[in-house]
Amino acid sequence: MLQGIDHLIIAVRDLDAASRSYEQLGFTVVPGGRHPIGTHNALISLTDDSYLELIAFYEANPEHRWWAALQRGGGLVDFCLQTDDLVADIAAFRNAGVTIDDPRPLTRTRPDGYELRWVLAIPREGHRGVAPFLIQDETPREERVPRQMTHPNGVSGIGTLTVAVRDWATVRGWYSRVLRQPGQEVRRDDLEAAGVRFTIGPHVFDFVTPTATNSLLGEWLQSRGASPYAATLKTASGRPGHLPETKTLGAKLSLV
């Protein structure tokens, strides 16, 4: 069963510069380490059991699924969901019409030398970025997720992830079958869009399609394809509003 967001992926060109920029926005940023596929990361851990992953390439890897998105500006590029039954959830997505690969292993070596291990099930091209990738830890999850979860800006968790899609009815069919709930039709006047909303654990997902020509969401779909568009972050003490994209390095994030 899907439990909610494990983490959001924010692709950046320079990891050190991105870490400093997010620290200036009031986040506690923890170095994550290196993956053997040419990426390294820094993590912003949240009290709702999710985190933001700042990820950059220390070696060119044009075959990687996030490389092309980074060349088009980076920012939010993907999302990972937690599951308590990886095999069952892979089968559920496949039965709903999503092409998703079998689990494959990945590792990350933390700065202290500890090697983290997990397996990922990743949707194939065409479904990637709208259907999630799924994770199952082999080493303890509490070793993968930083324990520093308090932030000067008061952010405590992820609120709503907005995903731009070309046909929300098709996406509704996927998630309705997997989650065994119909979802709620929504209008997003702020984006000149309409679609469907699902709640998974503590997190809300809006899968929306533009309703007007030349809308910002339509431009996004033309340039970036169906993919995560924006996310809200819950804060009790910070000032609500959009975070400047010059500081988030292209990620559309808002405090609520």
Quick overview:
This protein has 256 residues and is α+β, with helices and mostly antiparallel strands. It has helices at 15-24, 67-71, 86-95, 141-144, 168-179, 216-224, 245-248; strands at residues 2-11, 30-34, 39-45, 51-57, 75-83, 104-109, 115-121, 133-137, 155-164, 184-188, 193-200, 203-210, 227-235, 241-242, 253-255.
Overview of the molecule:
There is one protein chain. It contains 7 helices and 15 strands. The mean pLDDT is 97. The longest helix has 12 residues, at 168-179. The protein has helices at residues 15-24, 67-71, 86-95, 141-144, 168-179, 216-224, 245-248; strands at residues 2-11, 30-34, 39-45, 51-57, 75-83, 104-109, 115-121, 133-137, 155-164, 184-188, 193-200, 203-210, 227-235, 241-242, 253-255. The strands form 2 sheets. The protein has an 8-stranded mixed β-sheet with strand order 2-3-4-1-5-8-7-6. A 7-stranded mixed β-sheet has the order 10-11-12-9-13-15-14. The protein is α+β, with helices and mostly antiparallel strands and 256 residues long.
